[in-house]
Amino acid sequence: MTNLHRHAPLRVALVGLGTVGGGVIRLLETNGDLIARRAGCPIQIVAISARDRNKDRGVDLSPYEWVDDMTTLPGRDDIDVVVELIGGADGPALTLARQCLSAGKPFVTANKAMLAHHGLDLAALAEKAGIALKYEAAVAGGIPVIKGMREGAAANEISRVYGILNGTCNYILTTMEKEGRGFDEVLKEAQELGYAEADPSFDIDGVDAAHKLTILASLAFGTELDFDGVAVTGIRDVIAADIAEAAALGYRIRLVGMAENGPGGLFQRVHPMLVPLDHPLAHVDGSLNAVVAEGNFVGRLFFQGRGAGDGPTASAVVADLIDVARDEYGDAFAMPVSALSQQPPADAGARVGRAYLRFKVQDRPGVLAEIAAATRDAGVSIESMIQRGASVDGGVLMAIVTHAGEERCVLNTLERLAGSESLLQTPMVMHILD
Questions:
Q1: What are phi and psi of 166, to 5 degrees?
Q2: Which residue positions are annotated as catalytic (predicted)?
Q3: Is 58 annotated as a binding residue?
């Protein structure tokens, strides 16, 4: 039901005053009149809560009531909706979410980790209470991909959803690509510029992208959330030579989250991939995010924009608040929790595709023959092989691109080479986006 005649303000409690929380305050201050016209009422922050009351956040907090104990907010009659921006899969954020939804209080969050791990339980609570659980800001920042998937593409059977879901990784990879520098050097620069956290593992190891992919897969396919079913590989082991070889072959390397649903089960993977230059994802640079969904009637949908930062993420949070003000909301994952199907993980080894394999090997006779024999015996057909000259430590880089074949054959190749004295480091495998 849409409430077009609401005039009383929507009263908001804002929990978490980091980058995004400050952005929400600035956005409501800057665009308040326009937002009120679109929402049918003013949207007003009436209470705020965070860990440190004295921290300078660059915004004036004096108009708002400071609440030290956020667990009091769900029971307050003078608050219509709670916005949670503190993060974390468990702990205070999850406690607050459960309290709000159990008390019949609409809840808006940007917390993808919490949703990936506990989204079904929270959706069931919201469904039971007949209230909104909104999370547009949890995936791809300011890009309205949740609304696009849940509403705009609702009539379609989605066969595949994939994309660039982490701006930190994309910034690192595209900077390495443009400047020819190594991973460690670019990561350090990204940290200095604020694109990467002091502890960047959550981003560069692919966990953040896996949380987002879990949510997108559920929305796209009507399946239960299954974070544990996501195979995750980050970008730590991508080297400048990989990027150079990919470019020579007509590809760019991107960290891609991909999900497919079919008779064989639910496939979910976050992995560095070689993306053809003629694919839109190859041209998503810097800290941008992009999501591709393929529907049986709508065809390919492409969403691109800024995936993080105060402005884009605050935009998504306030868009959710506008929906709450309008009483426009449906089931959190596009259908009742009871209607979501439980799919087993698909056998990745049965997937057919091409792959890029990079080896660092000893500079001695017989090594090439050893690798070729391993690929032959594993059933891998080689499309091309590139060998570079010796490096300063005596190692030689060798790159192989395979013909299309089952992924289990590539894994079998690596198993056959495991423990070989010819290999100076663990081989790197990246699949090629078809």
A1: -135, 115
A2: 212 (proton donor)
A3: no
